[in-house]
Structures are given as structure tokens and as C-alpha cells.
TrEMBL record:
SUPFAM superfamilies: 6-phosphogluconate dehydrogenase C-terminal domain-like, NAD(P)-binding Rossmann-fold domains. Its EC number is 1.1.1.86. Keywords: Amino-acid biosynthesis, Branched-chain amino acid biosynthesis, Isomerase, Magnesium, Metal-binding, Mitochondrion, NADP, Oxidoreductase, Transit peptide. Mg(2+) 1 binds at residues 260, 264. Its main location: mitochondrion. GO terms for biological process: isoleucine biosynthetic process; L-valine biosynthetic process. Residues 252-399 form the KARI C-terminal knotted domain. It comes from the Eukaryota. Signal peptide: none annotated. This is ketol-acid reductoisomerase (NADP(+)). Mg(2+) 2 binds at residues 260, 296, 300. The lineage of its organism: Eukaryota, Fungi, Dikarya, Basidiomycota, Ustilaginomycotina. Gene3D superfamilies: N-(1-d-carboxylethyl)-l-norvaline Dehydrogenase, domain 2 (1.10.1040.10), NAD(P)-binding Rossmann-like Domain (3.40.50.720).
Length: 404
């Protein structure tokens, strides 16, 4: 029986199939690929239903973006009707992508280490041992798509044993370019008879799930590492829709892994912690109270200003603030840019030369890497700034009313 979401999507797809032929969602992908390379005028992006060719910056570089509108659920069912999608690993992505695939009514199974933390999590999410939950080997044997959703370090360890199941006609699916791109470090050689594809959601697996449930869909990128059948890109796009993407941006494995590792070390995670901490510490050193230092550093940023940037852009946020704030911010921005650029340049170089992946593999190969991570993140939680943050958050009117 189809889950409610799948039924809704099915109804929508029926409506779409009832539309006149010209407006119908057809297999544009294969037909449009050569067009994307040859006939798209640089200055006038062409709009094709389901595929867009967009010059984002206006510099003539045309990028390809796929829409889920081209893959209504009936088409997904038809496309994957003979396939078993085997999720190998059940961390954040396994949870999000797996539940979305299941809700879409596709034939999906989970393969994880028996008795491990993920096995328990999969059971808690309703996967049933012997029915759609197996140990990794059994799932890999049954799967026609081997979805490599274990940790990047875990993949290196598990891969040699899994290679026996990567036989002709099967597809190897990654959500990160890490393992195949840095094969000198990971030891991961792609099986010569398989398509090797990527769909990398641009966010946590938890967000992959919540955006799907809200009927929205996360942005993802897709890429092809090896195309044996000539259909690898089509498969990657179909998979991106199947796991819950809304818009899918075409890239390469190399570009995906470089930008992803760089971004999370920079503005997405490492950079914000570093910038918040530096600003907070200077305020405290100058005699400001903990709550004032936190409010002027984190709370106002996260509650008031960053959401405006996300919704409407940086200029909008600047314009929404006072003359005094705007003057100072516009003057300070280039100083931060100049000070930080060398840090970003070093970061990108370390990603590209493999230093960052080496560090990750070495760290995550330790048996007790989870506890070590826990210790370090506990240390962040114990920093005065975030301890203060906990108390300030509790005073937000919506939380205070709930006694949180
Ligand atoms: N999380 C994100 O935000 C995100 C976003 C986009 C892409 N990705 C990519 O998606 C992939 C999965 O990431 P994730 O965050 O979902 O998971 P993760 O937390 O990195 O990995 C957890 C999974 O790996 C398994 N695992 C670890 N070592 C293993 C080993 N030696 N053999 C077999 N299984 C092993 C764990 O099983 P046990 O419980 O049994 O240890 C668990 O199921 C990665 O390639 C990641 O880079 C992640």
C-alpha cells in the first residue's frame, strides 16, 4: 500500500498525465543532453520543462538544473520497477533518503551492521529484519542500486568486501564524491561494469526528510563518475527525485567533494563557530555581560538577521537595519573579506591536496571515534558562549511559555 505522500504524488502525476501532450512530462533528459552542450545560446538561457539551463552569474557559464516536475511518481515507479534500492549505512542520510524512498512506494531495503547503533535506529524507523532490513552483505547482494550511505571512513573499510556484489548491470550510488575522488587514500576503485553516480543532498539527512514531508524538497547535486550504460546521468537525476530532491544541480564528483568539504569547514560550520567565538570573547574582555555578549553575537544573528539574508539577500538585510548599522557593516565587510581570504585559500588548498580527507579518514578510523567526537562537541557546549546561549534560548517567549 502506498504511503499518504506517495498517494498525493500519484494523484498529482495523474493530473499531469491528463494534460495535453505538449505540456506533459516526457523523458526530456536523454533528448535534451546534447542540447545542453551544443545549442543553448550563452546569453539567452533556454527553459525546458523539467530542465533549466541558467546563466546564474551572467558571465556566460550555463548551468543545468533538473526539476522533480519531470519525474512524477508513476514515472519513478516505472523507471525503478525492476530495481532494489539497497541503502548500505543508516546514518542521517540513510534515515532521510530511505524513508523518502519508502514513502514514494519504491522497493528499498536497508543494510547495516547487525546489532550496531544504526540497526536499532532502522528498527525504530519501522524497517523490519528479514523483510527490508538486512546485514550489509545480504542487502548488497539483493540490491541493484548499492547506495553507499555509510560514513566516508566506514566505506573504505567495508568496500573491499562489497566489491563482489558490484556486478554487471548494477549501479553504485554515492552521496559524496569523497570515496571515489580520493581513491588513493580510500582505496576505492570503481567496478568497471557498473554505472557510478552521485546524488548529494545539500543539507543534513534530517532536512532531506522534513522538507520532503512538507512537500518541498531539498536542493541536491548530481554527477556521474562512470557511465557504462549511457544512462548514468538519467539514473542520477531519477534517484535525486526519488530520495526527495526538489531541484537538482549538475556537477562533477570532484567539484562536489571540493566545494562540500570546503564549505562545511568554512561558512557553514567551522567559520561561524570561529567568528562567533572571536566576537563574543572580545565583548567579554571589554566588560560586557554574558547575556549582552551572546545577544549581540549569536541571538540577533540567528533569530533576526540571518533569516532575512536567507529569505531576501544581504542587501535587503542591510536596508532593513539602521543607517548607523548599515554604515558600519558596509565599512567592516571588506576588512573581514581581506582578513579571511587567506584562511579560505589555505582551506581550499588543503581540501584539494587531500590533507582534509586524510585527516578525516585517520580520525574516523579510530574505534572510539564517536566518543572522541562527543568529547569535542561537549567541549563546545561547555564554552561560556553556548552555556549562556542555552539560558537565553530558554527565555525566548515561545519556549518560556512551554517551560523549555
Ligand atoms: N550528514 C550529512 O549532512 C550529509 C549530507 C550530504 C551527504 N552526506 C554523505 O552521505 C554519506 C552518509 O553520511 P551520514 O551522515 O548519513 O552517515 P555517517 O554518520 O557519516 O555514517 C553513519 C553510518 O555509517 C556506518 N558505518 C560506519 N563505519 C562503518 C563500517 N566500517 N562498516 C559499515 N558501516 C559503517 C554506521 O553504522 P553503525 O551504526 O553500524 O556504526 C552508520 O550506519 C556520507 O558519504 C556523507 O559524506 C552526508
Amino acid at each position: 500500500m502506498l504511503a499518504p505522500l506517495a498517494r498525493t504524488a500519484l494523484r498529482a502525476s495523474r493530473r499531469s498525465l491528463a494534460a495535453p501532450a505538449a505540456a506533459r512530462s516526457v523523458s526530456l533528459l536523454a533528448a535534451a543532453r546534447p542540447v545542453a552542450r551544443a545549442a543553448v545560446p550563452a546569453a539567452a538561457p533556454q527553459q525546458v520543462r523539467g530542465i533549466k539551463h541558467i546563466d546564474f552569474s551572467g558571465d556566460g557559464q550555463i548551468e543545468t538544473v533538473y526539476e522533480r516536475a519531470d519525474w512524477p511518481i508513476e514515472r519513478l515507479h516505472e523507471y525503478f520497477k525492476d530495481d532494489t534500492l539497497a541503502l548500505l549505512g543508516y546514518g542521517s542520510q540513510g534515515h532521510g533518503q530511505g524513508l523518502n524512498l519508502r514513502d514514494q512506494g519504491l522497493n528499498v531495503i536497508v543494510g547495516v551492521r547487525k546489532g550496531g547503533a544504526s540497526w536499532k535506529e532502522a528498527e525504530a524507523d519501522g524497517w523490519v529484519a528479514g523483510k527490508n532490513l538486512f546485514d550489509i552483505d545480504e542487502a548488497a547482494q539483493k540490491g541493484t542500486y548499492l547506495m553507499m550511505l555509510m560514513s566516508d571512513a566506514g566505506a573504505s573499510e567495508a568496500y573491499p568486501k562489497l566489491m563482489q556484489y558490484m556486478t554487471k548491470g548494477k549501479t553504485v550510488y554515492w552521496s559524496h564524491g569523497f570515496s571515489p575522488v580520493f581513491k588513493d587514500q580510500t582505496g576505492i576503485e570503481s567496478p568497471k561494469d557498473c554505472d557510478v553516480i552521485l546524488c548529494a543532498p545539500k543539507g543534513s539527512g534530517r532536512t532531506v526528510r522534513t522538507l520532503f514531508k512538507e512537500g518541498r524538497g531539498i536542493n541536491s547535486s548530481v554527477a556521474v563518475f562512470q557511465d557504462v550504460t549511457g544512462k548514468a546521468l538519467e539514473k542520477a537525476v531519477a534517484m535525486s527525485v526519488a530520495v526527495g530532491s526538489g531541484y537538482t544541480y549538475e556537477t562533477t564528483f570532484e567539484k562536489e567533494v571540493y566545494s562540500d568539504l570546503y564549505g562545511e569547514r568554512g561558512c557553514l560550520m567551522g567559520g561561524i563557530q570561529g567568528m562567533f567565538k572571536a566576537q563574543y570573547d572580545v565583548l567579554r574582555a571589554n566588560g560586557h555581560s554574558p547575556s549582552e555578549a551572546f545577544n549581540e553575537t549569536c541571538e540577533e544573528a540567528l533569530q533576526s538577521l540571518y533569516p532575512l539574508v536567507g529569505e531576501h539577500g544581504m542587501d535587503y538585510m542591510f536596508k532593513a537595519c539602521s543607517t548607523t548599522a548599515r554604515r558600519g557593516a558596509l565599512d567592516a565587510a571588506p576588512k573581514f573579506e581581506a582578513a579571511l581570504k587567506p584562511v579560505f585559500e589555505e582551506l581550499y588548498a588543503r581540501v584539494k591536496d587531500g590533507s582534509e580527507t586524510r585527516r578525516t579518514i585517520e580520525f574516523a578510523s579510530q574505534k572510539n571515534y564517536r566518543e572522541l567526537f562527543e568529547k569535542e562537541t561537549d567541549e563546545v557546549a561547555a564554552q561560556e558562549m553556548w552555556r549562556v546561549g542555552q539560558k537565553v534560548r530558554a527565555l525566548r517567549p515561545d519556549r518560556a511559555a512551554k517551560g523549555l
